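Here is one chain, start to finish.
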Amino acid sequence: MPPLLPLALRYLLWLIGVRFLLGLLENFAGLPPTPAMGVILAAAPMAEIAVQAGRRATCPLAFRDWAAIWGVCLGSYALLQIALPAILLPPVRALLTTPGGLQQTAVILAATGAMGALFLWIGTLAGARDRR
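Its structure:
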């Protein structure tokens, strides 16, 4: 099992960079701000994380290892995109107190988790192909 902290930091850097790029595209290129775009861009860096995890592993990774990597990435996403805004911004906190806001947040988190698992799988395939 590769160390999780460097993978989590790498994912956070990817997530911050992708969110910054998304903000630029929304403001200057007229890209509409949709939740689906945010989900895909939050999950896509997990493919690169999977490649890095495969390279840094000293033995083949088991399912529980991949589950731990997925959990760390999804937890980092939830911390950066849900918890910190809820702590720092009263409108976000108020949104999370309504059933509709909480449901929307849960759906986006679940979608990000599912897409993240898909991108982790894609990354393992890409990493295995590179090692041949």
